[in-house]
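User: Can you help me understand a structure? I only have the sequence.
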Amino acid sequence: MWSELDEVLKGELERLKESRLFRFLRRIDSPQAPEVVLDGKKVILMCSNNYLGLANHPEVVNAAVESMKRYGYGAVASRLVSGNMKIHEEFEEHIAAFKGAEAALLFNCGYMANIGVLSALCDSARDLIVSDKLNHASIIDGVMLSKAKFAFFRHNDPEHLEAILNAKRAKARRVLIVVDGVFSMDGDIAPLKDIVSLAERYEAMVMVDDAHATGVIGRTGRGSVEHWELYGRIDVQMGTLGKALGGFGAFVCGSRALIDYLINRCRPFIYTTALPVPVVAAARRAVELLEAHPEMVERLRSNVNYFVSSLKDMGFNVSSSKTAIIPVIIGDEEAALKMSELLLERGVFVAAMRPPTVPRGTSRLRVTLMATHTKNHLDRALEAFRDAAKLIGII
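Assistant: Let's start by predicting it. Here is the structure, written out as C-alpha cells:
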C-alpha cells in the first residue's frame, strides 16, 4: 500500500470541507414513507424519489415476499448464462406494453442502462452523440465512454440543437440525440416534440431518459411518450424502477431489433448478474398498481401545485414545476446548507444540492414530493420553510 495515500486523501477531503462541498451519509431507520426516522429523529421526508409512495406499499412488499418463496432470492448468473428467469421476461413484456413499445430489456440500474446503450449504439468515431447540457451524469459518462464524437446543446434549446445537426450531420454515420425526459435537478420537461421533429428531418435517433418521468408525467403516468403523444417516434426509452415505481433496477424499451442488438452488444447487460427475482416481482406489482390507480399521479400533481404556489406566495425563488421535483434556488452554497440544517431542526428533511451536481451560484434545496404526503405534511413543511428562510434572511 502506498504509504502517502491517506495523507493525500485527507488533504483533498479538507479542501472539500473548506469549500462546503464535503458530503456524508445520513441513516434512515424506517420505511421510505412520507415520515421517516432519520438519525434517530422522526422527520417529514421531502428529498426521496418515491413519488407515488410505492416503495413501502403493502402489495408491492407482498409481491416481493411471495416471489422469493417460489423462486428464491438471487438469479446468481448473467441473463445470457443461467440467470434468465420467467419473471424477467414477463416483466419485460409488461413494461414494453406499458410504454407503448415493441420490446424491453431489464438492466440493474439506470446508470448501467445509459452507459451501456450509448456505448453500444455509438461504437465508432464516425458516430455522433448530441446531448442536452444538463443531462444526468450517467448520460454524460455514457457519452464519454462511447467511441463517438459528441456535442452538447444548450439546455432545452432546439434551435441550438438544429445548428449542431446542420453543421455535423453530414459527416456522421449515426447520430443519436439524447435527453432527460424530466431533468433531475430542475424538474423541467424536455421539448420532445421539437427534438423528434429535428431528428426525423436529420435522420437521427432519439433516446429519452425517463427516470424522473415514468409515473409522473403523461395522463396516466406512462412518461414522456404519453405526455407528448409520440408513440412510435422515440427510438430508445430508458426508465428506472427505483423512483416512482419504488424499487431498484432499470429498463430500456424500443423495437425488437434494438433489444436483440443490446442483448448481443451491450456490455453492462452481458456481463452483469440478473436482477434478483423479488426486485422484479415488486416492480411488476408497482406497474400494475399504477395502471389500476392512475389517480395516484393526480394526487402527486395536486400536492406539487399546492406546495409550489405556497412557496411562491412566501417569496421563494421557485419555478412553476409540473413534475415531482421542485428546485428552491438559494444560490450560495453556505446558505443552502444552512437552510437544509434549519429545516432538519424543524423536522423536515430536504437535502442541499451544491456544485458539481448543480452549476456554481445555483445551489438549491431540491424538494421532491410524494402522492402520499398529506396536506398536514405539506403545511408543516411550509411553516418550517418560512421560519428557516426568515432566520437567514432569504425571504
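Now, to help you interpret it: The first strand starts at residue 35 and ends at 38. DSSP finds 15 helices and 13 strands in the chain. Let me know which part you'd like to focus on.
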